[in-house]
Amino acid sequence: MDDLEEIRKLKARYFRGLDSKDWALYEDVFTEDVVVDLRVAGGELYRGRDQFMAYARGLKLVQSVHQGHMPEIELISATEATGVWSFEDYNLWEDGSQNHGYGHYLETYAKAGGRWRIQTMKLSYLRIDRGEWAAPTFVAGVQKLGHLHGANPARP
Amino acid sequence: MDDLEEIRKLKARYFRGLDSKDWALYEDVFTEDVVVDLRVAGGELYRGRDQFMAYARGLKLVQSVHQGHMPEIELISATEATGVWSFEDYNLWEDGSQNHGYGHYLETYAKAGGRWRIQTMKLSYLRIDRGEWAAPTFVAGVQKLGHLHGANPARP
Amino acid sequence: MDDLEEIRKLKARYFRGLDSKDWALYEDVFTEDVVVDLRVAGGELYRGRDQFMAYARGLKLVQSVHQGHMPEIELISATEATGVWSFEDYNLWEDGSQNHGYGHYLETYAKAGGRWRIQTMKLSYLRIDRGEWAAPTFVAGVQKLGHLHGANPARP
Fold first, then answer.
1. Range of the structural domain that residue C91 is part of
2. Residue C60 belongs to a domain with what CATH number?
3. Which of A70, A86, A127 comes nearest B136 by C-beta?
4. Per-residue confidence (pLDDT) for residue B132, from 0 to 100
């Protein structure tokens, strides 16, 4: 059960790092040789953390919202696990366009040095709504989210 | 704790089976004599898995998105449990209409042969937005979701 | 693990109590001297359960939807814990305006008399969409949600 909880928190840091643009936190959820497959979602295949992080850091996002739901995590061995998550993402891009999507992650995890990390990550969408809808009334902006950064921003 | 995790994963298969139209996976989350009460949600009462599955398979959905949130699961005995979930659903129908809803599931679970299944399921909505909004930019279509099917689609 | 599960269910009652307007359930998730900080979200700082509950009960909501996602809960001692949650809220106000928001809770919890409660709660938004959108097709209305009230509304 501790491994399951560690993997759920790993994925929580993945989402929190991405939406608060805490790249140090985000980068650390992946193994060095992670493979990220965005091809079914209309994107590319990334080999290795450096290649994927160059892509992630280059995204022209004003603000992103990512939610994970309904994890199905299975331990395959003491150091290997799989995970299925449903997710929702809602992104505001620098050019004013927005997309609101719904889909699934299929993932594997590896444990090394006592830490679980994402080893492979594959994404697909059930549906995407895309548009130039009215701008949101409020956007925190990624530069104002330092209070969400770090290992545990709730710690007093 | 293992029972709680099994019930959470049971409900995850419920959602994944429904949205990927993996009817074999979906059907197997219910007991044979399941009672599904959709009356508060404006629907019918279904007695037995066969009756409910005939209804579910007949839904004229192009694509559905269902998310579960915030489970409150309690073990009543070694073979009985209850669950409260909040949920969100977002459905695209064959006639072009769409509904986006928010509500709760009230459920009971039964364990037999080492497996938990849904024994009763009751649904209610806090709110439903319904419309003929702009069609989504991308819809996977239920025929293209085979990669989400089966007991563990994340397994390499 | 039992403590983590108790804290997750505590937060589930927080959301369920708020959306079904079960104020007895809602009030009981807070310590008497809870501090609720809504300043980053454009609101006020509330000291003590009575002060915060006066604010909460006075909200002019026709209906609210609150979802919690991706908990990161850490036990600091046998009676202290921290939690990070992402959330989504969708509110319909008596004047017809609506807001749909996405953000995070940063919280601490205290255990006393065998029960965990929220000790501090801080809220921030990534994004808020606000408008006078078309009224929803269906709104349960807070007076029709008695079936969601109480410690365990799923109990037969």
1. 2-144
2. 3.10.450.50
3. A127
4. 86
Contacts of A154 in chain C (CB under 8 A): 72, 74, 82-84, 106-108
Report d(CA A155, CA C145) in Å as an integer: 36
Q: Give chains near A: 3+ CB pairs under 8 A.
A: B, C
- DSSP class of C141: -
Task: State pLDDT tens for residues B22-47.
Answer: 999 999 999 999 999 999 988 999 99
Question: At a CB cut-off of 8 Å and minimum separation 6, what does A13 contact?
Answer: A25, A26, A28, A29, C72
CB contact under 8 A, B86 and C152: no
**Closest CA–CA distance from residue B40 to any residue of chain A (Å):** 25
Residue with tokens 């594997």: A108
Q: Report residue C144's pLDDT band, with 50, 70 and 90 as the boundaries.
A: confident
Beta-carbon separation of A90 and C131 below 8 A: no
In chain C, the residue whose alpha carbon lies closest to the alpha carbon of B107 is C154
Inform me whether the C-beta atom of residue C91 falls under 8 Å from chain B C-beta atoms: no
Q: Provide the domain count of chain A.
A: 1
| Token duo for residue C144 | 């029709």
Q: Six-digit token pair at A42? A: 């209309």
pLDDT in tens, B51-60: 999 999 999 9
Question: Phi/psi at C12 (nearest 5 deg)?
Answer: -65, -40
**Is some CB atom of chain A closer than 8 A to the CB atom of B131?**
no
Chains B and C form CB pairs within 8 A to the count of 95
Q: What residue of C is the nearest CA neighbor of B5? A: C5
Q: Does B5 touch chain C (CB under 8 A)?
A: no
ipTM of the modeled complex: 0.95
Residue C151 is assigned to a structural domain of this protein: no
Q: Is A114 part of a structural domain of the chain?
A: yes
Residue C155 lies in a domain: no
- Sequential pLDDT tens for chain B (156 residues): 799 999 999 999 999 999 999 999 999 999 999 999 999 988 999 999 999 999 999 999 999 999 999 999 999 999 999 999 999 999 999 999 999 999 999 999 999 999 999 999 999 999 999 988 888 999 987 778 999 999 999 998
pLDDT of residue A132: 87
Instruction: Please indicate, yes or no, if residue C150 is contained in any of the structural domains.
Output: no
